[in-house]
Amino acid sequence: MHGNRIVQLTLLVLFAVTLVFAGLPAWGQPQPGMMKQRCMDHFKAMDKDQNGSLSLEEFSAMPHKQANPENLFKARDTNTDGGLSADEFCAGPKK
Question: 12, 16, 64, 89: which is deepest, by most CB within 10 A?
Answer without folding.
Answer: 89
